[in-house]
Amino acid sequence: MSRLRLGVIGAGAWGRNHVRTAAGLAEAELAAVCDTDAQVRERLVRQYPTAYVTADVADLLGRVDAVVIASPAATHTRFALQCVEAGKPCLVEKPFALSMRDAEAVARVAAERRVPVLAGHLLIFHPAVERLRALVQGGELGRIYYLYGLRVNLGQVRADENALWSFGPHDVSVALYLLGEAPVRVAAHGKSYLQPKVEDVVFLTMEFGSGVLAHVQLSWLDPHKERKLTVVGATKMVVFDDMEAREKLRIYDKGVERPPDYGSYGEALSVREGDIFIPKIPNVEPLAAEVSHFIRVARGTESPRASAEDGVRVVRVLEAATRSLTTGGAPVQL
Ligand SMILES: NC(=O)c1ccc[n+]([C@@H]2O[C@H](COP(=O)([O-])OP(=O)(O)OC[C@H]3O[C@@H](n4cnc5c(N)ncnc54)[C@H](O)[C@@H]3O)[C@@H](O)[C@H]2O)c1
After folding, report:
1. Ligand 1 centre distance from Cα of residue 253 (Å)
2. Ligand 1: residues whose CB is within 6 Å?
């Protein structure tokens, strides 16, 4: 089978990882890269002499079979629509779009034209998240009570999207993926300290129909770098710490139990402190897994794990959270 010709739009801080990944895959070739920055193009020409480098998206589209869109968020919808019009499958980096209107427009046109469009929900390709989903969906944790995530660090401060739109797609997509449902109510508090109207810190709460409560703390103005998710179930609890080099997942066999013969008296609750299990997680780079999956989708041999509709579902939460932010944290029904 011939190698799929892959194009990348936007080769900045993150897009360069897509370029590197595409160039290293056996099943695809890095055919073209588009970036409007002349210095970026010069670097690309030096590093990838066989790739076609251009500042024009239409020019790129004529030379590739599928496209990764890793340009700034505000350009995602325009380029996704352009790819679909040209019949080229595309992987749209997060955030999928900056409004529901845009997200739905892309999903609608993609469905009409039958061109696969993927949402860049990278973390669902993380082997620890895959394991966590198997634990949640397989019932090993018992009924899920609540979960909370921490995604904080110092910088990169963005001007065109706040901490909610920059970091939120990761945690929202993971929550929806783990639980297999979308929230029914969201609320968000946040503050802009460094730039007017660009929240540096956001506290997002999501409530699900099943009763699960999820809370996420997002900030690029924090002394710590934390990438952590805790899931509390009735029989077991799990911590996913992506800052850990090896032991990324810890399963705590802990819980609080109520003997069946003691109705509802609090005194009858007994704490169970069991073992801590650290499963071996395969050492797979999520980005390589995501791009390989995208190639199989573009070839028609797999269906999207994160489709345009999944992108819409996440943008719906972010847009509702934005409404909540602007009203001082009032809950917004979905
Ligand atoms: N999945 C992840 O973990 C992850 C991580 C970081 C960033 N991202 C996302 O990737 C996207 C890019 O982020 P970044 O940090 O690389 O930003 P960046 O500003 O460093 O890079 C953007 C690049 O796009 C180029 N560009 C701008 N307008 C363009 C246009 N019209 N046509 C072609 N190229 C254009 C710029 O010259 C720049 O090189 C954002 O949507 C961001 O949210 C995803």
Report:
1. 41
2. 9-15, 34-37, 40, 70-73, 75, 93-94, 120, 122, 166
Closest-CA residue to 239 (of 227, 250, 254): 250
Distance 331 CA to ligand 1 centre (A): 32
Contacts of 101 (CB under 8 A, 6+ apart): none
User: Which pLDDT does position 266 carry in this prediction?
Assistant: 61
**Where exactly are the structural domains of the chain?**
4-123+286-306
Quote the CATH superfamily of domain 4-123+286-306. NAD(P)-binding Rossmann-like Domain (3.40.50.720)
Q: Is the pLDDT of residue 1 over 80?
A: no
pLDDT in tens, 52-102: 999 999 999 999 999 999 999 999 999 999 999 999 999 999 999 999 999
Measured from the Cα of 15, ligand 1's closest atom is: 16
**What span, in angstroms and rounded, lies between the C-alpha atoms of 228 and 230?**
7
Q: How far apart are CA 103 and CA 247, in angstroms?
A: 36
- Best mutation site among 35, 68, 157 for ligand 1 pocket (most ligand atoms within 8 Å of CB): 35
* Residues 250-301: tens digit of each pLDDT: 999 999 987 776 666 666 889 999 999 999 999 999 999 999 999 999 999 9
What separation in Å is there between the alpha carbon of 233 and the centre of ligand 1?
37
- Quickly count: other Cβ atoms within 10 Å of residue 230's Cβ: 17
